[in-house]
Amino acid sequence: MPSARVLSPHSSTETPAAGKPAEGGLRGTRRVLLVGFGVLLVLLVLCGLNALAVLSSLQTNNESILRDFLGEQKRLDQVRSAIYLSGTYLRDYLLEPDPEKAEQSRAALESARAQVSSTLAHPGLLSGSRGNDDLHAALEREIAEYWHTLDPVLSWKAEQRHRQGYRFLHDEVFPRRSSTLSIADTIASVNQHQLLDRDDRLLSLFASFRNRLMIALVLMVLFGIVQAAASTIHLLRMERRTVVHLIEVTEARQELRDLSTKLVTTQETERKNLSRELHDAVGQSLSAVQFELHDLAVVLAHRQEPLRGRIDRLRELVEGCLAMVRNMARLLRPAMLDDLGLAAALEGQAREISRYTGVHVALDAAGLSAELPDEHKICLFRIAQEALNNVCRHANADSVKITVRTSRGWVSAIIEDDGRGFRPGQTKGLGLIGMQERVAALGGTLEIRSEPGKGTRIEVRLPFPQLGTPAPAEHDLAASPRGV
Amino acid sequence: MGSVRILIADDHALIRAGLRALLAHEPRFDVVAEAADGQAAVEAAERERPHVAILDIGMPILNGIEAAKRISAAVDHVQLVMLTVYSDEGYLLNALRAGARGYVLKSSAESEIVDAVRAVSEGKAFFSPKVSRILADDYTRFLEREHVADSFDLLTGRERQILQLLAEGQSNKDVATILNLSPTTVLCHRQHIFQKLNLHNVSDLILYAIRKGVISSQLDRNASGG
After folding, report:
1. Residue B111 is part of which domain span?
2. How far apart are the first and last CA of chain B?
3. What is the pLDDT of residue B217?
4. A195, A69 in Cβ contact below 8 A?
5. I need a labelling partner for B114 at 20 to 30 A (CA). Which of A174, A304, A438, B226 fits?
């Protein structure tokens, strides 16, 4: 876009001035954002790690408690069943008449005793559970006494066993066994209580962990909200600043366009005035001189040859001068455009090009409305003129076709040649830029299509306000048979 | 013959004075009015009813071509001579359409204006030879480049004669008298000419004649005779 190109120097002069403080501010903002989001992230990671650690410790704690409980329960059961069985074995031993079988029972009793003592000797047993140490000591004491009670029986003879066995069992062993077993039961129930107790403790641990987590989360959320609010405010401020900047740029562009329009208009007005001045003041004075010289020649018709010859030379000089002045005036402003309209002016231009360069220019202006505003006429004419000049200078074309059309609210002109073409992206002469400036000034579009070896096609479209009903086409000239 | 009443319209006093001085050499000519713009020219023509109106094309308020249209509509039998710096065909055609039968370039006005006024006052046409030459050259180039058959070749000798006389401004009756033919025959020839050349009105016919150079000999004779 021409406007964008023209704008670039303007904006490049503005950027460094406004850029220095903005850059510093940008760096500060970046640091704040980095720190803010960094802290948030670190908090998140720490919180997550803490949660993981607490959860896994809780889990292992829970497992070990359960394992301990189950192990103790199991050992207690073993002790209980061994003691219970020992009673049975002792009874068998005491009441068994067959000495061999009695000996077997005695052996079983011994093994039960060994099992109990080995179970009691187990280091983990009944030790981790504080609070019921007394109970355990009592149990051990009771068991020791129990065994102690049994000890003398083992050395009894068969008939002594037979005699006192039942009574001993009933009076000594069974009560002692019951009391031992009851202690074991008490321990089991205490253990049960302890388990529940630990469960409660775990729960409270869990609750405290939850609270901690909650606090961390709330903190993080608060921090995040602050961060988000700050970011949002900053973003909004930047957005506002951007919008303001955009408006400024748009306005600047519009101003530039207005300026360019004004320049084009001023240029045309100046040319018109200059042309008028040349034509009127200089041209007409020279014409008057011509008349005077003619008069003089008539008056001096009877005089000698040298004088008449000099007058003739003067007349030739003046005529040449006049032609020059008029040509200059015509180049500055095609009077035909004002006197006869766009179609006739284009027709004249086409004829002239054909006359001097031999390039065939065909004009189709049948669809041209007579009510074209002045600035549109001059714009289209200048573009056609420039295009024709380019064709003659560079294109090496045989023929050019100019088509001018008006349709509802639009007037378009297409200038196409069969010349050697060019790459529109690479070549951008002042002529093409000038065309674009003119078209942009009237809010129109200019499209240049060309390819090496495939000719050039320039299409210009201009919007224009329609004035009343569509006017009769301005094509009187185009309709007549004419040779160009 | 009585005097020829002349109106001069040009926005430059120097030119008007020059023209007046030139025309003063011819005793029969009588400049009855001057105007500095197109509107004033129309008003002066309606008031003075001149035989010949010399109109500059580039005039303020109303240009010469518009003024010519109004004057030929308002004043009977007025003959119009356009005085201009433009040799372009567009101007000539518009001048012809506006009813002008004289077309004089300012660059050669001092030597041609008297002949032009005399020619049109006698009902004949006059075009600056320079204009005729440019138009004829353009047309020849056009025919050569387009390889178009020259429609002029379609015309018979008699038709060419009649084309020339009509283009020079003679009426059908005059042509009949000059060529010693009946007016009906002339009318018949005239129709053939228009058909063969695909012409629609006298302006086109005159333009065609100028392009073909068929009236330049007449003009040259006018110029040398004057």
Report:
1. 4-127
2. 18
3. 40
4. yes
5. A304
pLDDT number for residue A156:
78
Instruction: Give me the percent of chain A exceeding a pLDDT of 90.
Output: 6
Query: Which CATH number fits the domain A27-233, given the four candidates 1.20.120.1730, 3.40.50.2300, 3.40.190.10, 3.40.50.620?
Result: 1.20.120.1730
Tokens coding A348: 């004249």
Domain made up of A341-479: CATH architecture: 2-Layer Sandwich (3.30)
For B113, the closest chain A residue by CA position comes to A291
Mutate to test the interface with A, among B91, B110, B203 (most CBs of A within 10 A): B110
Sheet with A360-367, strands from edge to edge, namely A360-367, A399-407, A410-417, A456-463, A445-450
Across the interface, whether the CB atoms of B21 and A279 are under 8 A apart is answered no
**Measured between CA atoms, how close is B173 to chain A, in angstroms?**
27
User: In chain B, how many domains are there?
Assistant: 2
Distances (CA, A) of B103 to A75, A307, B78, B212: 141, 31, 15, 17
Residue B205, pLDDT > 60, answer yes
Tokens at residue A333, please?
Answer: 């402003």
A82-96, A371-385, B99-113, B140-154: segment of lowest average pLDDT: B140-154
> Each residue of A220-276: pLDDT tens digit?
889 889 888 988 998 999 999 999 999 999 999 888 878 877 887 888 888 888 888
pLDDT in tens, B156-192: 888 888 888 888 888 888 888 888 888 888 988 988 8
Q: At B148, is the secondary structure helix, strand, or coil?
A: coil
Whether B107 and A323 lie within 8 Å, measured CB to CB:
yes
> Residue B220: is its pLDDT beyond 50?
no
Last residue in a domain, options B98, B127, B156: B127
- ipTM score: 0.72
Q: Which residues of A touch B63 (CB under 8 A)?
A: 339
Q: Domain check: are B99 and B160 in the same one?
A: no
Structure token pair of residue A235: 């973003």
Nearest-CA neighbor of A136 among A186, A175, A97, A176?
A186
Last residue of a domain, one of B110, B127, B144: B127
Is 0.90 surpassed by the pTM of this model? no
* B1, pLDDT greater than 80: no
The Cα of B180 is separated from the nearest Cα of chain A by a number of Å equal to 32
Domain borders along chain A are 27-233, 341-479
Same domain, B118 and B27: yes
Q: Which residues contact A219 (CB under 8 A, 6 or more apart)?
A: A43
DSSP-assigned letters across all residues of B171-184: -HHHHHHHHT--HH
Residue labelled with tokens 């009076």:
A171
Strand partners, B9: B35, B55
Q: Check if B173 contacts A (Cβ < 8 Å).
A: no
Within its chain, how far is the Cα of B85 from the centroid? 15
Residue in this structure with the two tokens 């748009």, named with its chain if needed:
A250
The per-residue pLDDT of chain A, averaged, comes to 79
| Cα distance between residue B167 and residue B162, in whole Å | 8
pLDDT at B170: 82
Residues in chain B: 226
Q: Which of A73-87, A168-182, B207-221 has the lowest mean pLDDT?
A: B207-221
3-class secondary-structure state, position A23: helix
Ranges assigned E (strand) in B26-131: 29-35, 52-56, 79-84, 102-105, 126-127
Helix (H, G, I), strand (E, B) or coil at B197: coil
